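Annotators were shown the component list below and the corresponding predicted structure, then asked to write short factual statements about the assembly.
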Amino acid sequence: MLPHTPSETPPANLNALAEDHYFGANPPPKDLEKHVALAKDFIDFHSAAGRRLVLVTSGGTTVPLEKQTVRFIDNFSAGTRGATSAEYFLEAGYAVLFLHRQFSLLPFSRHYSHATDCFLDFLREGSNGSVVARDEDAAKMLHVLRKYREARDKNMLLALPFVSISDYLHELRSIARLMRPLGPNGLLYLAAAVSDFFVPPDRMSEHKIQSTNAADPLPTKSNSPLNEPETFDNFDSSPAVPRSKRLVVDLDPVPKFLKNLVEGWSPEGMIASFKLETDPTILVHKARYSLDRYQHHLVIGNLLSTRKWEVVFVSPGNPDQWIRVPFKDGGAVKKDEPVDPKSLPEGEPEVEIESLIIPAVEELHTKYIKSVEERKGIK
Ligand code: PAZ
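Structure shown to annotators:
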């Protein structure tokens, strides 16, 4: 059993201080105002209709190393979970605000982009110089096209991009606050792979970090590097590289804002977060720990290697619930433990696991709405 220390949770006023400090020090993305206006119209439209609305966050967040960013740290996420989930939420009647990493997968177009095949491989020349879908792809493409058009024409999908970790946090805070009028009909489904570390702006270089001193002022006799002994690191045995030529990246932890989200930004919406791990022995513990610490409504745990095959739902007052796509020849799968990745078939599952995740989230959301209404004596 790993140590369990919810007492590490900072008190509320410390959270508020950390929030003021972070959002004061890290400038908002240049399109924030425009995005807020679009999000407000979208949310107000669906709120007036009494419709459920889900904010789906998706894709990775970058960690810039320079203010005028040439280089950044990134993570693996392509946005598959988010884009696929968005389609199943639409199917379930939710309006979807899709906050995604720029150029990551989008609902509907995901079927034809970032694939091993180029989208042009799905097309052929028709008569009179027209371009049409290949016969074998036409039925699926028509289905996807109709769903896409329906979502667009009924104003059910709004996609807003972010790039860096601070863009993401600014956008999340603003949109979560706008969702308040939805009350419990609002759902936040946080599938983005959010960086835990960043370079604070006061330590960030304005310009591209240089790898040589060619841009330094010309040496005079007194500041000539020839006068300085080169300092060598001696902590590894590889051919020594002078410290002055190394790039040592020193990252601070990104403050954890889930508590602020739950208590301040969106106090009535249902909040479902994802927890990604690579070590199967700590997944459930970390998911439960997150739930205890932030007091939200659902943590969906998944492992990097098996995330398309199984996830675990950890929610207050309920036993852990494993959701798995059916697979053949899987050997004996223990009901309450992660599956052994070696027992999984090669390639992608035949069923998209999001087709099972979303109905299960929807069921919990329905229970959540009822419980809020009962508490308020509405029904
Ligand atoms: O984008 P993707 O489909 O490749 O990956 C999805 C995921 C693993 C990023 C997501 O399911 C998830 O766990 N998001 C939260 C990650 C975290 O910050 O712990």
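Statements collected:
1. The chain has one domain: 28-124+140-201+253-375.
2. Helices lie at 12-25, 32-48, 80-91, 135-153, 165-178, 258-265, 283-294, 354-375.
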